[in-house]
Amino acid sequence: MKLEEGKIVWLKSGGPKMTVKFFHQASQKWRCTWFDSKQQIMEAFFEEAQLTDEDPNLGGAPLFPRKS
What we know:
The chain is mainly beta. The chain has no helices and five strands.
């Protein structure tokens, strides 16, 4: 999976869809934003290994098919 600003991702462990905001060079982590259950915007840093472009809540397919 290639991460870039604006990409939709999820934690591999599940949870809400998030939007990749930017890559933080110093920490080598991606900043992501999402809305919580109260529609408040949340932000946090995640390691690339924690993220996926396949919705684990649905058990499967990528939101957008990968381009070859």
